[in-house]
Amino acid sequence: MTRPLSVAHLTAIDLAPPQLIKAAAETGFDAVGLRLLQVTPDSPGYPLMRDRAMMQATQAALRDTGLRVADIEFIKITPEFDLDALLPLLDAGAALGAAYVITAPYDDDHSRLSDHLGALSQAACARGLTAVLEFFPWTSVPDLNSCLDVVEQAGEDVGLLVDSLHFSRSASTFAQLAKVPAHRLGFAHLCDAPVMSRYTQDQLLRTAREDRLPPGHGEIDLVRFLNAMPNHLPLGLEVPMHDPELTARDRLRLIHSATIALLAKVDAPPR
């Protein structure tokens, strides 16, 4: 069985959704993740819920290529969380046929964070999407166990998104990952990077946003990472790379081929 592979929008964030979809199809991917909200001041978002022409062009690209939208991203859940303001985003995800909506924890009050995540999950489920929470080492939900605690409080339908970079750079263990209930893991984010004993916050942020490596090109134990989760879990390749000599298609082609080589080791049938 072949794992479904999607490319996260951050990997080629300068490509608008229709162009990303076409480039992903040409380089072997099955799906894309789309960033519909701007996350940082120097990184674009593509608000298809407010751009009818871009939405139509995106839907046409999906039809022409046969690709699907794996996820839309991402919603920062803050103390000022406003579900009503996010409903057009969820409606756009439904119109695109997305499976997941990615959320990020930006509230130190975990009880309130869980309540807001649960409310978002209900609204997402009503539109055919599953809400997943991703943990980040620089937030108040810095690791796998704290993320699982929030998710379990938020409701049975809420998922958990594990990114190999954040997993590697947090106080998370492979034993903990192996114990995560399978129904919480709809897919995982994959990339590679150097491994160090300690990281500054600047290092964490810079690597996460612009300086990752294709799978197998760094030092993260990705084979063990993947083997700790359900077999053939879908993967989203989130690999922003700072290499001006590579075009977006060059990057996607390199990332796809590197992933296929890694999966040959992970998914090979036992002898």
What does this structure look like?
The structure is a single chain. With 271 residues, the chain is an alpha/beta fold. The chain has one domain (5-266): TIM Barrel (Alpha-Beta Barrel), CATH 3.20.20.150. 41% of the residues lie in helices and 15% in strands. The chain is built from ten helices and eight strands. It has an eight-stranded parallel barrel, surrounded by five helices. The longest helix is centred in the last third of the chain and has 19 residues, at 248-266. The radius of gyration is 17 Å and the shape is globular. The mean pLDDT is 96.
Short description:
With 271 residues, the chain is α/β, with parallel strands linked by helices. The protein is 41% helix and 15% strand. Helix 1 links the parallel strand 1 (5-7) and strand 2.
